[in-house]
């Protein structure tokens, strides 16, 4: 977002400074995954929400770096658990440096993030981030438990993504509210915006596993199925497809089998599940937009509104 481009440059300075360590491998792996780019949505959200609420203190740069470190740590751990080989169009860190290095450097980034939290000297900020990291970990375990479970329903699916993905979005926008010292009602509105946006983001991400292009998404099409993940497109397809087609999807999920991937993708498309999934994401994006009614009207608030609207057009 152009509105926070200068702020993000300050965040990058904080990231570079706080990645400094006497252990070369830590720096190498950390810089490898951070240099891979990505949307940096979580720090952008914190900066955009800070702007919407009129907070201009330097602590927003520190906490934006904190949420990026936490997110990066989860990526390192996720790719090991999922045995992923491709992220953002390049080999994953575990593919390049090995599982052990990825896990341990992820631990370093978590601990460095907690060191940086102390700079805010605010117990409420510590509480928000400590809860967020705990809920994210619970979401990771829930997802692991659900691997290969074709009976997962939409409510259970949403529970996982609101814990695993949306919680850090929510924490990012709530942190901005705490920094700005707004009312409890406004803080909750900021948190609702983050949670709804994060939920919509993950739903679209899961959708792209079945209608995206690997050259655009930067990950292998069908990875979710290979990992035995029961995502919303598959849940909705099993509900609306003929019994034989639903049985084929169930078996593929249970076995983590992508041999029938072309046929399954055809079933998902013909069942209407992709449009239904996009509709579910649109409902979450609209919930995020409605939460902005509690905020002041300014350029940054308008940018947050546009971000929610543009999310639905995401193709990568």
TrEMBL record:
CC cofactor: Mg(2+)
What's the catalysed reaction? 5 isopentenyl diphosphate + (2E,6E)-farnesyl diphosphate = all-trans-octaprenyl diphosphate + 5 diphosphate
> What GO biological process, any one, is recorded here?
isoprenoid biosynthetic process
Domain of life of the organism encoding this protein: Bacteria
For this chain, one GO molecular function annotation is: metal ion binding
Keyword RNA-binding (UniProt): no
InterPro entries per the record?
Isoprenoid_synthase_dom_sf, Polyprenyl_synt, Polyprenyl_synt_CS
CDD domains named in the record: Trans_IPPS_HT
Q: Does the keyword Transport apply?
A: no
Stored Pfam families: polyprenyl_synt
The UniProt entry, under Gene3D superfamilies, shows: Farnesyl Diphosphate Synthase
Query: What keywords does the record list, in alphabetical order?
Result: Magnesium, Metal-binding, Transferase
**EC annotation?**
2.5.1.90
Q: Main role?
A: Supplies octaprenyl diphosphate, the precursor for the side chain of the isoprenoid quinones ubiquinone and menaquinone.
Q: Which family does it belong to?
A: Belongs to the FPP/GGPP synthase family.
Q: Which PANTHER family match?
A: ALL TRANS-POLYPRENYL-DIPHOSPHATE SYNTHASE PDSS1, GERANYLGERANYL PYROPHOSPHATE SYNTHASE
What protein am I looking at?
Answer: Octaprenyl diphosphate synthase
């Amino acid at each position: 977002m152009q509105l926070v481009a200068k702020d993000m440059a300050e965040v990058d300075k904080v990231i570079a400074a706080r990645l400094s360590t006497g252990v070369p491998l830590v720096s190498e792996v950390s810089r490898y995954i951070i240099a891979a780019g990505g949307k940096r949505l979580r720090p952008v959200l914190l900066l955009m929400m800070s702007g919407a609420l009129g907070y201009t203190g330097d602590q927003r740069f520190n906490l934006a770096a904190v949420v990026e470190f936490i997110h990066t740590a989860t990526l390192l751990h996720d790719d090991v658990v999922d045995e992923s080989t491709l992220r953002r169009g390049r080999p994953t860190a575990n593919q390049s440096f090995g599982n052990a290095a990825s896990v341990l450097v992820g631990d370093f980034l978590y601990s460095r993030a907690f060191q940086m939290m102390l700079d805010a000297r605010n117990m409420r900020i510590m509480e928000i981030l400590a809860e967020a990291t705990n809920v994210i970990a619970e979401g990771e375990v829930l997802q692991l438990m659900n691997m290969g479970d074709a009976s997962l329903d939409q409510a259970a699916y949403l529970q996982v993504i609101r814990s695993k993905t949306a919680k850090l979005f929510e924490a990012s926008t709530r942190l901005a509210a705490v920094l700005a010292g707004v009312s409890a009602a406004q803080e909750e509105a900021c948190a609702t915006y983050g949670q709804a946006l994060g939920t919509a983001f993950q739903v679209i991400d899961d959708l792209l596993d079945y209608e995206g292009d690997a050259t655009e998404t930067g990950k292998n099409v069908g990875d979710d199925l290979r990992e035995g993940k029961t995502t919303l497109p598959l849940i909705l397809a099993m509900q609306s497809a003929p019994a034989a087609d639903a049985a084929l999807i169930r078996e593929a999920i249970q076995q983590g089998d992508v041999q029938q991937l072309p046929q399954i993708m055809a079933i998902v498309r013909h069942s209407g599940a992709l449009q239904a999934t996009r509709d579910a994401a649109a409902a979450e994006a609209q919930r995020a937009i409605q939460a902005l009614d509690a905020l002041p009207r300014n350029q940054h608030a308008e940018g947050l509104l546009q971000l929610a609207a543009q999310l639905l057009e995401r193709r990568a």
